[in-house]
Design brief:
alpha/beta; Quinone Oxidoreductase, Chain A, domain 1; Rossmann fold; 2 domains; 10 helices; about 25% helix; globular
């Protein structure tokens, strides 16, 4: 099969011939239709973030396709089925999994990081970690559900606990942030989106934001947000991954509010613990999504509650993986998908 191989940081991916994997007894072989290109992939390539599996490695963790072959113990999938693979597979037996928090599984395995991923014609995935994609969802574009939709689902539903009428502020309107906007809107939140890009703020309005703020156009961001939210947000989401915006998001909260940290940052944010205590603020992290929630996110897309197809602004064949990555780097794309 053809695959785009990652040989190490600061090196381009190279499209090469690689052995086609065979499914084990509890696995399925997927012929990849689409694999989303994520900023996580750029962290490995551009910033030297280490992968669990030593290179050479096939990156890519947002995967959709058709089942090509199944292992001998697989009963619920058959060749030809349209499926979505979870981005991070789980063990099902550790304490976190037994407590229903599979997204922080002690033995989790990330496609395109711990094992080979979807920038290839074929990929092997545990059958239990694949879900049927309804015919109403386009197969290629459906790949981005595996991270760009499910990560916001977990952040908004399970960690933010957004309820109808809640004042919500979303910092960062990239591919994940925009889906936090539309997920919170779908749950009845009244969303204010914050970004330094007017083009991304226009996308946020299209996806349901009631108001938008470009921090470079106001004197006091915190004052502007308090005005727009009637005194402060009940829930604020930081989807940028910078200490400065994490602190701004905390300052956007009303008394009793909750900050949900979705964007990854190696930086240390400052935190006034006395203020957190006195105003009963909450600061929680949000990582990925539990596999058990994938069918719920898929159903929201099927029903049209979540706009999917419009978000995939660029598609590239596997041979143009370098251009796909450059497009993501440019900031011009909302979501980029490779079609092996």
């Amino acid at each position: 099969m053809k695959a785009a191989i990652f040989h190490g940081a600061h090196q381009p991916l190279t499209v090469e011939e690689a052995p086609t994997p065979s499914p084990g007894p509890d696995e399925v072989l997927i012929r990849v239709a689409g694999c989303g290109v994520c900023h996580t992939d750029l962290h490995y390539i551009d910033h030297g973030t280490p992968t669990f599996k030593e290179p050479p490695l096939i990156l890519g963790h947002e995967i959709s396709g058709r089942v090509e072959a199944v292992g001998k113990r697989v009963a619920d999938k058959r060749p030809g089925d349209r499926v979505l693979a979870v981005a991070v597979t789980t063990c099902g037996v550790c304490t976190a999994c037994r407590e229903g928090r599979e997204n922080i599984c002690a033995h989790s395995c990330m496609l395109g990081n711990t094992v080979d991923g979807g920038f290839a014609e074929y990929v092997v995935v545990p059958a239990k970690d694949t879900f049927h994609l309804p015919g109403e969802i386009p197969l290629v574009e459906g790949s981005i559900i595996a991270d760009a939709i499910t990560t916001p689902y977990h952040a908004v539903v399970n960690r933010g606990e957004v309820r109808p009428g809640d004042a919500v502020v979303v910092f960062g309107c990239g591919g994940v942030g925009l889906n936090v906007v539309q997920m919170a809107t779908a749950l009845g939140g009244r969303v204010v989106a914050v970004d330094v890009s007017d083009a991304k703020l226009e996308w946020a309005r299209r996806l349901g934001a009631e108001a938008t703020v470009n921090p470079t156009s106001v004197d006091r961001l915190d004052k502007e947000l308090r005005k727009l939210t009637g005194g402060g947000a009940r829930v604020a989401f930081e989807v940028v991954g910078k200490a400065a915006t994490q602190e701004q998001a905390l300052n956007a909260l009303a008394t009793g509010g909750r900050l949900v940290l979705v964007g990854y940052s190696p930086e240390t944010m400052s935190l006034n613990a006395g203020r957190v205590m006195f105003r009963e603020l909450e600061v929680v992290g949000s990582l990925g999504c539990r596999p058990v929630d994938y069918p719920r996110a898929i159903e929201m897309v099927r029903r049209g509650q979540i706009n999917l197809a419009d978000l995939v602004t660029h598609r590239f064949p596997l041979e143009e993986i370098g251009q796909a990555l450059d497009t993501l780097r440019s900031g011009d794309a909302i979501r980029v998908v490779v079609t092996p």
